Amino acid sequence: MSDLHESAALSARRLRTRTALLAVLAEYGALSRSDLGRLTGLSRSAVSSAVADLRAEGAVTEQPAPTGPVTGRGRPAAVVALSRDNGLVLGLDLGHAHITAAVGTGEGTVLGEATALLDIDDHPQRALDTAADLAVEAMRQAGCGPEAVGAAAAGAPAAMDLRTRAVRAPTILAKWIGLDPAAELARRLRMPVAVANDAEMGARGERALGAGRGLNDLIYVKASHGVGSGLVLGGQFYRGATGLAGEIGHIQLPGATSWCRCGNRGCLETVVSVAEVRRRLTHVLASADRGNVPEEIPPLDELGGRPAAARVITDAGRTLGRVLADLVNCLNPAAIIIGGELGQAGTPLVTGVRESIDRYAQPAVADAVEITAGTLGVRAELHGALVTAAESRRTVA
Ligand SMILES: [Zn+2]
């Protein structure tokens, strides 16, 4: 079982135990194991196993008490304290309709998390203020203050110029153009924040903890409101000359004519965005139900068993695969990992992508690439931010 699955399976009780320990350590500083038990009401064995986990992650240290009481055998009692260079980091995932903040580790453990639903595109300042508020709430849930958080990173659905760190067009975030999200977030959070495009964060999450483990050449596709990609080439995250690589959503599709928000016609994301796929699903589900328009489209991962819906999704996969086939010819990746909301559709989507790659890519490179949905789902970007923050802390240290 992977670390991530292990941590996902971490029982609610174990999580509460950890949270309780972190909370009292944040409040009291260093404490002996017996004090930890007394203050949290936890059993000695529960304290012991949680302290062992937290030590292994680097979140706490345990040392002899400097002037502490002496135990019966003459050994100084040990005290547990939040590690100064502790394993806790802050990750932020900014999407078009939500912001999530999480405090956890770069190994897939989340100790505190808070989400708000809002339209970030038209309200950059409010979105950034909300991100900072959510970070505070995530720390509160994790039982720690800002001093316990070693580093922070954020993914944002925007193309950012490496030279200026500012948001650039073409972007969905028209009102964000010229803003420096890293500086804006750092000012609000009073700590440095590494910011990258959301698809790159998704690639970082899947590569560290999900379907991309151990792979040095992969393409992560975030198929959501827009379509973007994070590229790992030769073991490096590839950003291009100015940081704008991977914008596959604006590759032209032969025969497509719809206007795109970028000002061109026939871009990939005019056909394969989650909004467009949902529009077509609404149509076919209404037809299947004698014209009754469904009030709500079921989650994409529940549609596989409905043949008409599965066909719509497979067709979207073929269109996406048409563009990815050219990338496969060019880059010879070991895997294409599909994330974002559309990635939730799973098998029917992957089937469509596979068909197009087998048809349009050269057989030798088509055979070499595995096509798969991400194993972290829509949480890839959030975990990628936590992983990135943890790496930035190690780099600084
Ligand atoms: Zn476009």
TrEMBL record:
Q: Where is the HTH marR-type domain?
A: 18-67
PANTHER family hit by this protein? GLUCOKINASE (PTHR18964:SF173), ROK (REPRESSOR, ORF, KINASE) FAMILY (PTHR18964)
Q: Which family does it belong to?
A: Belongs to the ROK (NagC/XylR) family.
The identity of this protein, by name, is ROK family transcriptional regulator
